[in-house]
Task: structure prediction
Amino acid sequence: MKRLLTLLLILIPLQGFSQWVRFPIEFWAATPREDTLSFYLVGDVLAHGRVVASASTHGYKDFFKHVEGNIQGADVAICNMEFPLAGKPYTGYPHFSGPESFAEYLTEVGFDVLLTANNHMLDKGPEGLSRTIRELESRDIPYTGTAASERTDTLLNPLILSVKGVRVALVNFTYGTNTGSKKPWPKVQRMSREALSPVMARARKKADIILVFPHWGVEYETRHNAQQESLARWLVEQGAHAIIGAHPHVVQDMQWIDGVPVYYSLGNALSNQNDFIARLEAALTLRYVLRLGEAPQLLPPRLDLLWCTKPGMVEDSYAAVPVTLPPTCWRDPADYQIMQDTLNSNDIIAIFAEDL
Result:
């Protein structure tokens, strides 16, 4: 795409003329290179007790060490912080309260936005959520999916980013929470169409790209259900450009709906879960081509499979590693073989052969 530049009120001397000539000049500049806008997206980050204990001994550096380049190389990197910052005593499953240092690490490693609408966000009640919001805001950590008040709700749901001149809306919501609240505020964004209609309307009005992050589905089911698909189709009708789900703790199938990619679940990003199927996870890269005067165009998405290793398998602490990590990097060949056997299981092969 060429770019028209107009220079006004230019004074230049022209040979053969005895006076200065004043006029606007228009010319075509050299064609600029296409630019791209990239997103790196992972699933649930869980502050299980053993994960936090390991961090207190070894620090957090191992957690995303093997994908740090991908996180930092994206224009926007996003993960789901599936725990409140409700203060001490820090607790794991089933009622989470993670340390503030965990959230700080996520931003230090390169995540730009934390998703906070999930079923664990009210584990410590509305007071725990209020504290979570205060702790994030005091550290200037961008988040979406929750809000402290009606005023901030319209600013955070959706969260509007401006990146490379493109306005991006992030819409995050959950099917529900494990613990309820009788107070209207603070609020966790819910999954009902009634609640989401004004959010999607604001997104359409303000953004060029709308990315939707549902917390939905049935835990440990590798296939999406009818409720997920019905809502996905409605979200596409409401203007979603991509839908990236979480909550089932396993990687689910994907499908295209009217040209919109729907990844029903990326699985866990970091956890202490023991089921092998729950240690397989996915990282999604979305790239949009930016051309002057045109709407952003989605390039073919890229899905990278990761594996959540436990302390002593690859690193001293927990670590999300690519499944392509050479076997020589593993301290025990048996752990590497477990990952390979999981990848070669019929369920996993069927999902990726059909849909991904």
Notes: Confidence is low (pLDDT under 50) at residues 1-32. The domain at 38-354 is CATH 3.60.21.10 (Purple Acid Phosphatase; chain A, domain 2). The chain has one domain: 38-354. The chain is about 25% helix and 30% strand.
